[in-house]
Design a protein that fits this description.
Helix content is about 30%, strand content about 20%. The protein is α/β, with parallel strands linked by helices. The protein folds into two domains: about 10-90, Peptidase S8 propeptide/proteinase inhibitor I9 (Alpha-Beta Plaits, 2-Layer Sandwich), CATH 3.30.70.80; about 95-375, Peptidase S8/S53 domain (Rossmann fold). The structure holds calcium ion (4 copies).
Length: about 375
């Protein structure tokens, strides 16, 4: 597991740390945590952090009153007694929601060509892929790629280093170019951004995901898609998603490949649209989760999309379903732009939900009839044609 630290350290803290290194708690095991404060760190809990000589502050969040940090068990015990500290939770590892490489043929595609033919193609809409990065040199993505950040290695180059081109594949489903080659994305003229929070093996820390969501808010993304998840709830992640949603951003996440198990976090949060996968017939995929937290269903079995090195490949998973919904959200937003009426995130979210029917798509429900996202339905509903 690569652990690149974001070196946002408090100067005085660093000095104390250097002075005491080798004398204070030399053998104490350190734990990666996220510390939440009742107020901003400037006014409360930071004081108690500064009293702890061995604390390494990795990232100070602006979206939520919290920091990610590495510290000892003893320091955690002491800080938990500080009235300014709201919580200290583990920096839980998220894993990728890809089930398997599938070699069988069949490209799942929602009905968006008519929208593209009418000039509704995601133009002007910013979509961020919170994932393993993107191969932004890909011939089918390079015109739409506009930037991003790498929170795994703390640099401004979010190139996809994953073994299965995960983030590149997700990006292509959303916004592969309509250029006569390869594949076409749901919103083939959307602006695509890479926020790298998962390493080459598909693992990432909660603190990186939160930093990525924060980057998305601060850089005015319209839609973010997260194809990773975890079984455990995390208050800082929940708060970050809520604050991002309240800022007007649409958050879409893979429901998880739990084979009939629970919907994973962050998809499970109210502020995040949970997307499960169907095969091309509209039946739930074998790896899909169950439960009332599932909100939308979209194609996620044997999906052909972009892979690293100007290549293409098939992947299956709720990771592949979620970007179909994110792309649809981009189309909805751009349809309002075409109509010269700005679409709000709330409009688009309502339209998305309406587009797939009022009944949540669960594994046992008739997702063929009422749970399948089609961008055509969504846009027509939004424009009052249905
Ligand atoms: Ca190109
Ligand atoms: Ca990098
Ligand atoms: Ca293409
Ligand atoms: Ca949800």
């Amino acid at each position: 597991m690569k652990q690149a630290f974001l070196t946002i350290t408090i100067t005085s803290l660093a000095i104390i740390s250097i002075l005491l290194s080798g004398t204070a708690y030399p053998e104490e095991p350190q734990r990666d945590v996220i510390i939440g404060f009742h107020q901003t760190p400037e006014t409360s809990g930071k004081v108690s952090i500064q009293c702890e000589s061995s604390v390494i502050v990795k990232h100070e969040y602006r979206l939520i009153p919290a920091v990610s940090a590495r510290l000892s068990e003893q320091a955690i015990c002491r800080m938990k007694k500080d009235p300014g500290v709201a919580y200290i939770v583990d920096d839980v590892i998220l894993t990728i929601a890809t089930d398997e490489y599938a070699n069988s043929s069949g490209l799942g595609c929602i009905n968006s060509k008519m929208m593209h033919d009418n000039g509704i193609d995601g133009t002007g809409v910013k979509v961020a892929v919170i994932d393993t990065g993107i191969d932004y040199t890909h011939e089918d993505l390079d015109s739409n790629y506009k930037g991003g950040y790498d929170f795994v290695f703390s640099d401004s180059d979010p190139f996809d280093d994953s073994y299965n081109s995960h983030g590149t594949h997700v990006a292509g489903i959303i916004a592969a170019e309509r250029n006569g080659i390869g594949v076409v994305g749901v919103a083939p003229n959307a602006s695509i951004y890479a926020i790298k929070v998962l390493d080459g093996s598909g693992y990432g820390l909660t603190s990186w995901v939160i930093a990525g969501i924060e980057w998305a808010v601060e850089n005015d993304m319209d839609v973010v898609v997260m194809s990773s998840g975890m079984e455990e709830d995390s208050q800082p992640l929940r708060d970050a998603c809520r604050n991002a949603y309240d800022s007007g951003m649409i958050l879409v996440a893979a429901a998880g490949n739990t084979h009939g198990g629970n919907v994973t976090y962050p998809a499970r949060y109210d502020s995040v649209i949970a997307v499960t996968a169907t095969n091309l017939n509209g039946s739930p995929a074998s790896f899909s989760p169950i439960g009332p937290e599932i909100e939308l269903a979209a194609p996620g079995v044997d999906i052909l999309s972009t892979t690293r090195g100007d290549d293409y490949g098939y992947l299956s998973g709720t990771s592949q379903a979620a970007p179909h919904v994110a792309g649809t959200a981009a189309l909805i937003i751009s349809s309002k732009m075409v109509a010269e009426e700005p679409a709000t995130a709330t409009d688009a979210t309502i339209a998305l939900r309406m587009a797939v029917g009022a009944t949540p798509a669960t594994r046992d429900a008739d997702v063929d009839g009422d749970g399948r996202a089609t961008s055509l339905d969504a846009v027509m509903i939004l424009q009052g044609a249905m």
